[in-house]
Each structure stands twice: as structure tokens, then as C-alpha cells.
Amino acid sequence: MSDGGLVRNAGEGVNPKTAGWTYLSFRTVGCRADEILAGETGADETALIWLGGRAEVDGFGQVGGRDDVFSGLPSALLLPPGASFTLRALTPLHLAIVSAPAESAPAARLIRPEDMRVEMRGTGVTQRKIHWILSEKEPAARLLLVEVLTPAGHWSTYPPHKHDEHTPGVERALEELYYYRFNPEQGFAFQGIYTKPSPSPLAGEGRGGGSPLNVSIRAHHDDLVLVPRGYHVVSAAPGYDCYYLNAMAGAVREWLFTTDPDHEWLMDWKKT
Length: 272
Known about the structure:
By secondary structure, this protein is mainly beta. It has one domain (7-266): Jelly Rolls (Sandwich). It is 1% helix and 48% strand. The protein has one helix spanning 16-19; strands spanning 7-9, 25-31, 36-40, 44-52, 54-57, 61-64, 76-79, 84-89, 93-101, 109-111, 117-121, 128-134, 144-150, 155-162, 165-166, 175-183, 188-194, 205-206, 214-220, 223-227, 231-236, 241-249, 258-259. Strands 1-20-16-22-13-12-11 form a seven-stranded antiparallel β-sheet, with no helix packed on it. A five-stranded antiparallel β-sheet has the order 2-9-4-7-10, with no helix packed on it. The model is unreliable at 201-206 (pLDDT under 50).
């Protein structure tokens, strides 16, 4: 089954034009020790997420520390529109840079490992660990950011859910990206993305319309997977621990989703 053009190169990244949506941009960057990385946020709220390594950041001091995504909690630098950043890598450095357009945003701030809210979600073979980098409880204009570590052989993003329609109090339309890493690196996971016929022509506005979508993606190390709409679910292959970084953004910064009614009876966790 085709991946529907939803798998992209993380280093090349995506933006609203290349992704065919409105908000999210994403790319990964690698730096050698002593290399300088500088940039400007332009009209976007922008987050730099430390996947691995340490850097000296102008105005914030030393940031980072974990060797890779499987060996500790992340750090992140959240910047408003119209800001700039300069950092010098102290070790080999691996960053994810996520952005979305915003008219205004809170002042620049550093999110340190001790600021992370860690959550265990699911039971048995659906248990996984959540690192909330930037939930809707924290101040931001547009971005929602979370890391998920799924043990080998476990399911994640489970039961399948969607957030592609604006139905106040029930669901908010949020574009979403998955950036994958595996341990060992030759590992993989399957990600399913699918739509179902709307139960009512009066369903809320959003991205839920369009042609039917039913794809099964074999996600590999360093893959970037787009979720433009539909229900989605992940299954990590036995023998390979799975990491993914989720980035979400939409018109309303509220994580409200609809679980696939066929599988709602399997919901064993509550949104916190």
C-alpha cells in the first residue's frame, strides 16, 4: 500500500507549501562541535528541540546534555516571531526546529529537562512513556510538542484517534508530524493513517473532508511522517524501541481528539 506521499526527509524538512497545509514547518539540523548555528524566526513561533548534544546559546548559557533521544529528557528553546538565535555546539549536536506562523507569542524561554512532565500511558502492550515538552497547559501561541517512547513490540497512539475537524468542546483541527528514531537504528514501526465516512453532513469544519485515506507506512530511523487528517496509530516492531517527536499546530491551540468509535472501548488512559 502506498505511503500517500506522507513520508519526507527530515533533514530537508517540510513547510506549509511543501506539506500542503497551513501551519507546521519542521526540519532537523546536525552540527559538529564548535560549529555555529544562527537563525531568525521571522513571522513564526519557533522551537529548537535538543535531540542530542550540548550547545552554548546566546542569552541562555549551556543547553542540552543527553546523548540521544533514548538517554534522557530533552531541552527546548521557544522563541516568538521576530526573534533571532545563535548557538555554538559544544559537542556533536542534533536539533529539531519546529515552527508555525503566529501574530504574537510569549517571550523567549528555555524549557529544561526538569520542566518536563513525564507520563506513562496505556497498559500492557500499549504502555509507552510521554515527555511533554510543550502542552496546552504551558504558554505558547501555536505549537504543541511531545516526545513518545514506545517499547519494542508495543502499540502507541492507541486507540486510534483523529483531530481534523473543528467541533468546539469535542475536537480541534490540528496538523501533526511524527519524527522517528529507533534503537537499534535499523528498526522500524508501522503507522496507519485512515479516514472513515462522516456520520453526519453537519460535522464540524476542518481538514476531515477530501478523498478517503487509508495508508500503512513502514517508518524508519530519521523518517518524518505527515498526518494531514484521519485516524492514526503506531506499532513498534519487536526488538526495536521506537521514539517519535510529535509536533502539532492549528487555528486553536487545544488538544481535543476523537477516538475511533470502533476501538473506543480499548481506551485505558485519560487526557491529563
